[in-house]
Amino acid sequence: MEAVDIRQLYDSDPRLTFIVDCHERPASICHVNSALVAIAPIASSIHVHNAFRDWWHPDSRAPTREQSTFLHGRLRWSKFLACQRWLVVTASEKKEPPLDKLHPSPNPGSVPTPQQSNSLTCPTETIFSVKIQSPALREHIDYIRNIDWAATSLGPIDQWGYELSFLVTTLMLETRPGALFLGPEHIIIYNLAYAGVSGRRHPQILGRSIIDAWPEVADPVNATVERTRGAEFIDAPEEEYHFMVERYGYVEEAFFMWGLVPLVGPIDGLYSIVTEVTKQRLLERRVNALLRVGQLTSTARDAETFWTAIHESVKPYEYDFPTAILYSTFELDTTSSVSSFRSTPKTCNLEWTIGYRKDHPSIPKTLDLEQDEGLARALSYSSKRESASLFRKEDGILPNDIFDDVEKRAFGDPGIALIVIPLRISDDTVSGYLCVGLNTRRPFDEEYQDWIQVYSNLLGASAGSVALHEEEARGRKRAIEQATKDREVLNAEVAVLTQEANDVAERLQNFHDVANRVGLGYFEFDVNGKLVHANDAYFLQSGYPTDPNAPEFTFVERVYPPDIEKTMAQWHTLVAGNPVKFEMRWKRNPDKESGSEEDTRDYLWILSACVPIKSEDGTVIGISGCNTDVSAQKEATRAALLRVEAERRLASFTELAPIGFYYLNPTLEMQYCNDKWFEITGHPKVPNDQIQWPDVILPEDIETIYKDVEIILREKRPHAFSFRLKKSWVGPDGFSSPTWILATATAEVDEEGNSKSIIGTLTDISNLKWAETIQKIRVEEALESKRQQENFIDMTSHEMRNPLSAMVQCADSVSSSLGEMLDIIREDGTLVCKLKDLIDSSLEAIDTIQTCATHQKRIVDDILTLSKLDSKLLIISPIAIQPSVLLQDTLKMFKGEAHKAGVSLEVQTEASVADMGIDWAILDPSRVLQVLINLITNAIKFTQDQSLRNVEVIMGASKGPDKRPGIEYVPQEALREDFLQQDECEGGDIFYLHFMVRDTGCGLTPDHKAKLFMRFSQATPKTHVQYGGSGLGLFISRELTEMQGGSIGVHSSQDEGSTFTFYIKSRRANAPHRYDARNSRNATKSAGGLPTRTKADHTKNVTASSSRQTATPSPPPPPLSPPVTAYHILIVEDNLINQRVLSTQLKKRGCSIQVANHGAEALAELSKTSFWKSPTTDSPLNLSVVLMDVEMPVMDGLTCAKRIRELQESGEIVGHVPIIAVSANARREQVEQARMVGMDDAISKPFRIPELMTKIRKLVGGVDGLN
């Protein structure tokens, strides 16, 4: 099937089929099958521009394109789209012509034979026998005569009957287009006039079935036959058809009125009457286009509306305007207040397009008409012509894509020509250019040209009307502006008149009305102070009551109090007969007795010009005057004075300020700077216009400064930046560097928001930069010192813990071996007693080793804890725990040590714990144990040489931080953060736990007690020699108790023993869900302390009363037996001694051991285990756990663990490989780092084998559960 061409399948199909490629542009027929090729008439008709092509063509816009089927050539056609590309068109059903006739005949459905017509008299002359004068008609008759009519149902011409010959003769002599469709096939015979209708089909369709020769008329013919079938009347309706006729060498749009009349009589057929109405329809369509553009543009009042109106009038007429482009040449003349059209525009702007895609490459947004190419050339050419210009594709003036790259409108044809219509307002003014595509199926004949000319004239008239409207609008605007200017001139004249009125007071009486209009307060008083007359402005300014019965001298009440005396003095001057002109103030608020001189809202300034009114004999009978509101002038004067004063003060400040001031214009030229600016920058003191400020700046910083200036101008807000000058600066230590400057600047803006200047300051910050550098150096030195200190501590700890681990493990091994030997000796009493003495001596030595190792480990732990305290890295991690269990675990820890020292160790719980109902509490067990360990260790150490050797550990509780009587508590150095405020510490009420360690040791003197709890301090210089220690234990205990919200103290007398007590802050807690003893121990152990037990682990219940347990001497415990489970362990350790000792100890526990000297060897050993996806050995080892040292050559432990986890992620290692970090690095950060790279747990050297086995069992059990 894959080798078969689909075209071969269609060629073998008997149905008529052709295939269209929709991806080609334009779409075209790519294959016609053999069945369709065999029927030449139908095969040729599918290429013709007709109704059938409009139905199947993918780019057609005809309404019939949406139909699923179409009747063409007596066949019903259907189509479907395959693979989104191939349109398959198939003739699915054959439609036979009707066989019945309107009038039955002896042979239904046929034309009478010659025998049937013998009874009729044949015409003596027919069109075929007479002599024809017209050459055209004679040629047409020859076409008919040469047709093989014998092959049709009509028979040969010489056998045609009378009726048929008469019909044909009559038809041929008819000057109007006419045709006969005869017989069941509707064979066509038409006259010479009808040949023009048929177009290029003439004369091939003569004598052929109309359905095959002209498929477009198949539907009208069949419809007429259907209507007349069986009817009792003749139905001959006349219908109009819009055909595409190929004549005159091209496809032409044409309209026809087509009537079909059934023949009456023995002849079966139809008579076709055709009248072409193309000119009438085109005229109607073009007139409608003119009416629409005239109607839409007539309402436009501005250019924008005018262009939109043209668009709306052109777009619906897609046949006459398949494409359209509109460019406008309106330009605003900015040199005056008048907008006008430029008669010779150089550019034009694109307003819209129709039929073109957006951003067409040959249709730019703006056209330069001076260019001699493309649309610019065409528009420039048309602007010089009075009529529209036609540019055809073959002319080569316009780009080809103007014609080809168009949207499918109208007939869907590519463009053939473009008509450019200049929109003329006048003979020399063009407002725009309308470019329309030529109708692709009509000739550009005289009628077409006349219509385009009328269209052009109509658009030009409309454009002129729009321009006139806009000019009128501009004229109105100019008139309004002129009126405004006239009012301003009038106001100025009124002001001049007002000033003259102040100078010539005696003439005010004649200008009462003018005074009212301009706001001059005119008044007249008699000599007794009674108001005679005043205008509205006076009442408004003074607040004088309008009551005519107001008492005399009422105006005095309206005068601002400080001006009353001056006003009355002027009154007396007027009464004496002298005119006056003075300034005074009216009160704005009549109810306010006094006001502030600074608050201008309390008074109104007026200029009063007054003259005495005299009688004929010269006696003063009244006072007349006018008041002018001068508040605005006063306020302006006051503001000007304040501004001058402010500028003076600013100038003084800028000259005396310790910073440099500068003022730059928008081009960054210096306009002003103070003396300090020259001093800071080192620039020579020259006039401002000679200052070159970039010359003093370090070249490397110039570009950065310009970027900062751009930010200032863009954001228009204060901006600070720093840079360096070429001027050198020398620090106190002799350090020399470029001068550092801190600049602060902002942009001044005008009313339109544009930057008009830059104002800023300069500050010399070289000293600050020098200090920052010094500080940075000091910080780096401090950090380096801290790093070296930590490295030293880590190295010291590592070097001390490594041998300690071997010592402890060797001691465990020897102790275990000697214990077994003792058992053998006890069983066999025949051995020499001397061997028992040697074993006892060895056991004593082993005890000494373990004691020394433990002592050395505690010193290292104290150093590490002190390091964390100094670095503020020690944190308190409270959890829920049972304090009584913590106390019992303390007893268990020191039971063996107390027994060896011969000390009686007891623990006791006070009744206060039970009375308060304390069971679970929130505290940090590791830090509490650390304090107890320090105190109990000291108590045993200082008691073991006494005759009475007792040590008691007592726990109590209280609601508050109650201090025990007789105890001297150490004052707290500083307030500590409450460690119980963390989210995980939410619980019940707060209470305090008290712990007391009482011994019968040597006691302390007052001087000795004063030195306790201090860093590196011991009671006496002999203490270290006699008892050892670092002098850090009590200091660390003090810090830990204070961090837990408590305090520590001591009560002691020499030779009477000592009592150390401390208390911590705690909170009640609920028992954790699913709690068991193992979880409690693990929680305590994970916090950094030793495993604790619950009350269920006690061999004796602790009652509410004071209960006590005592560590009494007992024989050493029997050696540990190997575990039931035999683990397979990989030891990765570079220290061969530790490697050998650890291997021996673990083998004694029944474990299988593999060793590696570094991480690379560990990976190689791991490839031999079942964890490896493809083990390198046939019998892979079932590895249980990896004990990984951290510090190793070649590949360290952290890198190895990280690599193992990466192999797990990639799938090379199957399952989770348990890894325990074994290292002398004991700091919390180092342990956390090991966990972060993939270690599951960690144990610090030195360690006991039982401790290690506990971790292994816990880890391997958890991993097995997960697996």
UniProtKB/TrEMBL annotation:
Residues 480-507 form a coiled coil. Residues 795-1068 form the Histidine kinase domain. InterPro entries: 2C_system_His_kinase, CheY-like_superfamily, HATPase_C_sf, HATPase_dom, His_kinase_dom, HisK_dim/P_dom, HisK_dim/P_sf, PAC. Keywords: Coiled coil, Kinase, Phosphoprotein, Transferase. The keyword DNA damage does not apply. Residues 1113-1122 have a biased composition (Pro residues). One of its GO terms (molecular function) is phosphorelay sensor kinase activity. Residues 1103-1112 have a biased composition (Low complexity). It comes from the Eukaryota. The modification 4-aspartylphosphate is found at residue 1189. Residues 97-119, 1071-1122 are annotated as: Disordered. Residues 1128-1260 form the Response regulatory domain. It holds the Pfam family HATPase_c. This is Putative histidine kinase HHK14p. It comes from Aaosphaeria arxii CBS 175.79.
